[in-house]
Amino acid sequence: MTSKNKIAALIMFLIGALIFWWEARKTNPHQMLHDLTTLNWWWLLVGAGIMFLSWVCETVVLQIMLKSEHEQIPFHEALRIPLVEQLFNSITPFAAGGQPAQLFAMLQSGIEGGRASSVLLMKFVVYQFMVLINFVFTMIVGFERLSIHIGPLAWLIVFGMLIHVAVIIGLLLVMYYYRLTKKLVALCLVPVGWVLGQERRAKMAAQLDTKIDTFYKESLHLKKEKKKVLMAAVVTLLQLLLLYSVPYFVLLSLHITHVNIIRVMVLHIMIVMIVSIFPIPGGSGGAEYSFKTIFATFISNGAHLVLAMLLWRFLTYYMGMIAGIIAVAVQPKRKAKQLPDEPHDE
């Protein structure tokens, strides 16, 4: 972990502390202290365990996609990869550092670069589809009723959904309409040349062409691995459901029992969608504001709401950063395990 990354992680922790202080400044400190001392720590531990299980599911997805006739990666080696991803997702804008960090961690474990890139592509496509499925269900079940209470945030939720739909459409276009995609990209870059100049436009076009070519080549592997993709999709869906359920256990730890787990998950899906469009690492500021605004619909006590926000943020964000820092510090002990060839009958 470079000094730049260490500074970024420290800054995010400090920003989190500052946001919590800002949100808590108007609450009764005695009430918050009382809520903290009477916390049901068992439910909080369940929430932490649920979050850990979501990382385990992501690890299983990696193992499913990496497993071949002659190679597999041990579970403890594979677990390190999503934890490293958690850290770099948390300290980079739009979680842009997660993919390169995973690739580097996989190379450290002895996985060939081309295969690692192909697996990460499959994982990304599956994840995006599962996120979209969850969100569409959420929009059908709870958006109309919730939008009455959250005002402008409703538009951010819709905007987040449109971004995810655009990403899915872009992926499908490259996978199934490769030449058409390249023509559409070239057409979209024409106005760029008018504003930034033809030299900049040509440079951007070359970079995008390279990325589209790489993605298309890797997508050919995706089409051949239908069984793996289906298995990964099921486990990814479980991973997301576990993640979305974490706030429910936070509320139970605060003795807030008049909540329905499905409704809490619906609310959390909407928060995650809003956070994904904030450019600040971890969606800091936007995440906390979204949580307070959305969960205020059934938590009237200000101290309860601020403490719930803090505990939720710790479990879903800072705990991943801490685990990621540990994962980066622990170097792989062995390379990807090579399995002996299966004996063939003469």
Structural features, described:
The protein is mainly alpha-helical. It has one domain (30-330). The protein contains 14 helices and 2 strands. The chain has helices at residues 3-24, 29-37, 41-66, 75-91, 98-108, 113-150, 153-176, 178-188, 190-196, 198-224, 226-253, 261-275, 286-295, 302-329; strands at residues 71-72, 337-338. Strands 1-2 form a two-stranded antiparallel ribbon. The longest helix is centred in the middle third of the chain and has 38 residues, at 113-150. The protein is globular.
Helix-strand blueprint:
Layout: H1 3-24, H2 29-37, H3 41-66, E1 71-72, H4 75-91, H5 98-108, H6 113-150, H7 153-176, H8 178-188, H9 190-196, H10 198-224, H11 226-253, H12 261-275, H13 286-295, H14 302-329, E2 337-338
Antiparallel strand pairs: 1-2
Briefly, what is this?
With 346 residues, the protein is an all-alpha fold. 79% of the residues lie in helices and 1% in strands.
Entry keywords:
single chain, 346 residues, mainly alpha, 2 strands, 79% helix, disordered C terminus
Oligomer: single chain
Average the pLDDT over all residues and give the rounded result: 84
Number of strands: 2
How helix-rich are the residues, as a percent range?
A: over 70%
